[in-house]
Each structure stands twice: as C-alpha cells, then as structure tokens.
Amino acid sequence: MKKNSFFRFFRTREFTVTIILLLLVILFGMTTKNFLNPSNIRNLLLQVSTIGIASIGMTTIIITAGIDVSAGSILGIVAVVAGKTALSGYPIWLIFLLALLVGALLGSLNGFIIGFIGIPPILVTLGTMSFLRAMVYQLLGGKWIGSYPPFPDSFRKVGTGVFYGIPIPVWIMLGLVLIFMYYLRYRPTGRYIYATGNNIEAARVSGISVKKILFFVYILAGMLYGVAGYIMASRTGIVQTNTGAGFELSVIAATVLGGTNILGGEGTVVGSILGALLVAVIKNGMILMNLPALLEGLIVGAIIIGSVIADILKTREGKR
Amino acid sequence: MEPFLKVSRIVKNFGGVKALKGVDFELIKGEVHALVGENGAGKSTLIKIISGVIQPDDGEIFIEGEKVRILNPKDAHEKGIATVYQEPLVYKKLSVVENIFLGNEIKTSNGSINWKAQVNKCKELFKLLDIDPYLIHTPMGELSVGLQQLVLIAKALNYSAKVLIFDEPTAILTEIEAEKLFKIIKKLSSQGVAILYISHRLEEIFRIANRVTVFRDGKREGTFDIEEVNRDKIIELMAGKALIETIERQKNLSKSPILEVHNLTSPYFKDISFSLYAGEILGFSGLIGSGRSELMQTIFGLIKKDSGKVILNGEEIEINSPEVAMKYGIAYLPEDRANEGLFLRETIKFNISIPILKNLTNFFFKIDNKKENELAQKAMDAIKIKAPSILTVLNNLSGGNQQKVLLEKWLLTYPKILILDEPTRGVDVGVKVEIHKEIVKLAEKGMAIIVVSSELPEVIKLSDRVIVMHEGSISGKFNRKEEITPKNLISAATGIRKAS
Fold this sequence. Notes:
The complex is a heterodimer of chains A (320) and B (500).
Chain A: H1 2-10, H2 13-31, H3 38-63, H4 71-87, H5 92-117, H6 121-140, H7 153-160, E1 162-163, E2 166-167, H8 168-186, H9 188-198, H10 200-205, H11 210-236, H12 247-257, H13 269-288, H14 293-318
Antiparallel strand pairs in A: 1-2
Chain B: E1 5-14, E2 17-27, E3 32-37, H1 43-50, E4 58-63, E5 66-68, H2 73-78, E6 81-84, H3 96-101, H4 115-129, H5 145-158, E7 163-167, H6 175-190, E8 194-198, H7 202-208, E9 211-216, E10 219-225, H8 231-239, E11 259-266, E12 269-276, E13 281-286, H9 292-299, E14 307-312, E15 315-317, H10 322-327, E16 330-333, H11 337-341, H12 348-353, H13 369-382, H14 399-411, E17 417-421, H15 429-444, E18 448-452, H16 456-462, E19 465-470, E20 473-478, H17 486-493
Helix pairs in contact in B: 4-5
C-alpha cells in the first residue's frame, strides 16, 4: 500500500505542475539575466502570495462544485476598509480583524443565497461582484487613497516586511496553506466539503447538512479574500477603484491549473499554490525575455483550458 | 444459419481490469437471445462495444458475414443496431415525438423538420407497440417510467433496427408493464428482428428467450438452446456454485414496537400507519411509484411530512433531517446507489466512514487515520468486498460490490432500525444471496429491518410481514407467512384491497 501511494504521487497534478515549474525556472534562469536574481524571486513570491491566499478559499469553493467570481470585489471592499481605517489611525490588529470580519460577512452573503436559497453560484457571485464593485466606487468617491496622505508605516509593515529573508505575506500564505491542508484532509468538515462536491445528493442522504457546508465555504473563502485584501493594501500602499478588479480570474486560473476539478469533488490547496506559482513564473519570465504581453495572455489561457480539459476527461474516464 | 451479427475474440481492458478476455458471440435473425452473468462478467461491456459506445482493444465484428467497425452509437444505428438502456435516457421537457426523433429528424426538402411526417411515423410505431397515440405530444417527463421505456423502444425501432438490445429492461418496470414488453419482444422477433436480452431475472429468460449465453469473468461459459438448460444449471454456470432459495432463521421479536407510524401523510402518500418490532423483517411491496420510497425518505427526514406522527420506543419524535434520523438510530439505504447512495469518484474508505467521521476524531478533532483504516478494512472483510484495497475507487467496482459498500457504510452507524430500499437492485445472483444472508443475520441479532423491494421473490423470501402499497395508500397487510404469496401481493399491489 505504501508503494501504491508512492506511485500515485507521480500521477498527480501537483507533480506535473512541479515538473513544469522546475523546467521553466531552468529555462528562464538560463535565458534571462535577472530571473534568478533574489529581488526578482522575492517580487515574484510577493505577487503569488495574495493570489495564493485567495486561491485557498477558491479551492474549497470549487471542491463543492461551486465558483466565486466576486473574489476580486470582496478583496476590493476589504482593501478600502483597511486603507480607510489605517488612515484614521486604528491599531493594525484591529484593522486585520476588521478585514477578516468584512470578508466573512460578504462571503456569508454569497453563502446564504447559494446554500439556503439554492441559486447557482455563478449567478449569485456575478451579482455580488458587480454590486460590491459599485460599492468600492461609492466608498472611494472615485479617488484613490494611500499616496497622500500615505498609509502609516505600521500598516505597511505586514505587506512590505521581511522575516528571515522571506516576505511576511509569503509566511502568512505558507501558514494558511498548512492550516487548510490539515483542515481539508483531517477534519470531518473537510471531508464533508469533498463529499458535497462529489455527489451532493449522496452527501445529504449520508447525514451531511449540505446547505450549511455551502454557507460555510463561502464564509471561509470570504475571510481568506479579506486576508489577501489587507495584504494587497498594505503591500502596494494604494487603494483605488479598480483594486482587485480581474483578481478573481487569476485566482480561478491558479486553482484550476493546480488540479481542482471544476466539476467538484477533487482538489488540493498545495495544487492551487503551485498553480499560482506557475502563472506568476510564466508571466515574469516572459516579461524578462521581452516577449510581447499579448503572448502571455495567450499562453496562460491555453494552459488553463488544457488543464480543464484534462480534468474533465479524467472524470469522464472514471465514469465508464 | 448465417448469424446476422457475430463478434469474435473480443478483448477489452479498463486500466488493469480485464472486462472481456476474448469473447465470441453470435446473434441470429429473429431470435431472442438472453445474455446472463454476474455483475462484472462483461455483459455491459459487450453491449457497449456492439452499440458503438466503446471500442474493443482486440477482436473482430461481422455483420451478415462482412467485417465491420462500429465507430459510435450513430454508426451502430446506421448499421441497424439499437439499444434500450436500463435507465431511460429521456429529455423530460420535450414531447414524446420530439424524444423519438431527436438526432434522427425527418426533414423537408429545405432542411427543416417535417412534423407531419414525424407524427405519422410516430403513430405507426405506437400502433405496433400498442401505445395510446394520444400521448404523442405529452412531455416525456409526465409519463411513467414504464411508458418512457416503451417510447424508447419506439425510438429504437425508428432506426429500422435489425438488432435490438435490451439492458435489464424490466428492472424498473411493474409486472404488468413487463408483460406488455414480453409481448412486444415476441412480436418483433417474429418479424425477424434479432433481440439481445440482458436480465438478472431468470424467470423472464425462460419465458421469452430462444437461446441463452452465460458470461463469467469476461469469458463465455456457454450458449444453449433454452430447452437444453434449467434455472439451476444457469445459476451454476454464472456463480460457479449452487444457490439455495429459502432462508431459515431464529425469530426473537421485541414485545412492544420500536417504531410506530401513525397517519403519516405527504404529497406522495396519505394516512400511512404501521408498526415495526425489533428483530423482524417487514417487507414493503407495491408497484413503482406507489409511494414506498417516499414514505421511507419521509421517515428518514429527507422529505417533509404534512401530518402524522412517528413514535420511537413510545416517544413521539420529530425527524426533519437525515442527521436527526441517524441520531435516533435509523439508517436508510437509498434505491439509487449511484446518485443518492455513494461517492463513486472516492475510495471505499471515504464512502464507508463518511456517516461516522465525527466518532473517529481524536482529542484534537483530527480524523484518526489508523482507526479509520482499520474500521474500513474490517468492514471490507466482513462482507467480502472484492477490491484490491480500501483505497480502491468505487468507479472500479462492480455494482454488487458497490452495494456491499453501501450496506457496510450504514451498518457502521450501528442502526437500530435499518431501512433498505431495493437492497439488491441490479446486483448479480451471487451477491444477492450474500446480501440476503446478511440481512437475516442482522434481524437475528435484534435489528428492526424494513425491506422495500419490487421483486416479489425477494420480499417473500425475506419478510416476516408484508405491507403492500398502492397509489400512496396501504392496500394490504399480510402478517402470517402463509399469506405472503405472489398472488396476494400482486392483487393488493394492483389496488384490490385485502387487509387482514
């Protein structure tokens, strides 16, 4: 059985993505001057951290066979709230708590409509995406905040600080990855999340409150977008009306690339982080190679479609 | 006589599983050829190859002596091969005539649908099958499952089928509908259509088949004229062992009922009252759609009741979700194991432990892996689930083994009341006997068991008492073993009230 699980590892998406990542790192390392430069790597990881943290939430949602396109708008609202309270001089622990709370609250709105009223996730989150983006405009009054007057240094520390040579957001991401790996794998609720996505009817008959599970994953995801939103505001030092716009696409891309099955029931947090890394490495490498930005979109898009096709074929093959 | 369809040395592997190991098979014009075998024997694989759903890894296919390849279902239709599957594949919102001609429309010269011609053709087909032509424009979803099945036969005939394959057609039909189907099959075969008929019900095969082929473990065990063989011989070939039909057991009933249902009513049934004692097996018989399954789902908290009482050990209880039902020691095995019972893309272990995960956590609320593995292994051994390990994914198991997983999953909750909805549906004879033995063993140990089944032999074999339902009401209660006869049950199921 040990041997079995050993071989199974080589057939996982995580393994495939890791190999591709290594090959790309070698390729870009050899063909460009700056790719392996520590500051470039640090920058790259910083970009990955916000997408990675949000993708943990997106992973749990997609495992339940859901989707959340409001991630970027929730992140935007949180960034505005965090930025404004920072400017008012609130202590950072309170701001951080507020970020979690606002994220959870907005996530619970999605979760309530999806879980308890039973509206398809794509419709609900499309609605909240648009609604919350409008609120970002309203809250900011069309202006941006953070440049003048600037955010307090204490607020910027989380996003820009370094601990043992590694940016603090990366540490936060790693910590959250560990927690959620454990959670999804070893806690009954984690299993229920997989069960719900695998076969919602069977889950219900097995005594799982699928409505509560759905409600719960959107809250969880909302909180994680909250963390990402806080980091985004703290790292960039500016919050604008389009903060987080289009963010959900990168997050969904990372998650799907990392092997989370869009049909539900399958996926890992580690896979999604690897997916986020892969997208970031491709983008970064292509910029350094002076390739046109248009090409980058084409390649990332093609990889995403390819990986979704692979997933769906795999699911079909299983259903003979 | 030259066979119409002939396959030779067909091989098909799914990953490591050898589904067909070099099979020969012939189908002659005008015969009804029964194909039998345990689940996993390779019957379905052969059908899928003949109907173009999958491609064989090796071997040849001949139609009227000419070597062919059947590329896809459409190609099969064009070659005169049509299949009627076990579960009707229908478009519920579309009308009957739209269903019949979907993908095979009759068109006018400018390419639009010729409705008049379609309706006429449809009427012709319905006349042949003795279906009420009045139904032509009815949405498919409003028809009973039996009627849907008949419409799909009409659809198959519309491809001017020379070979018609039936995959367990009677599994979802009532006795009366099945009778009608047999007549149609006879009629078609007399017109020269070759019929390939797959069924787990051997009685049917002796009634309608001319020849029978037995599969076991991906190989053909033999083909016989129906006069050459008897029931025992076929079962022997299928299972490789003789099987007993009666079951003896110790009865140890509790004095007072463990469960009482008083005047339970929902949109699916009305005014249902009965009681259940620990240690007994109570059978629920009746036609499909008589409200049996919905009654059980209401007791288990999946459907909301309108009125009535459920009393457990003398105390009235309110069950509004499966979670609550489980807390009271009630377990329910749904009839549709693929859609309601199991997580087919997950492992045996995952499936078995899901209802009891909360009891498997350690001090830190973490699932105790070791405990879970041991439990799953023990469960797997207890009921002899045939699989490489507890980490085998359910999709790779035969229907019989999946059903065993479903049973074990619920037994691990240590229920006091076990409700089994079609416990052996689509399961081969060998596994069926094993499951029956297990049910009897559980009753002997003092569990209160309800068996809902559409198969009369099963209900009669297992039950101490039988309740028959008809159109949402109880139409018969039979408390003594000698009253539990096919005749009594059928007459009650068809609405002739006979309570005792």
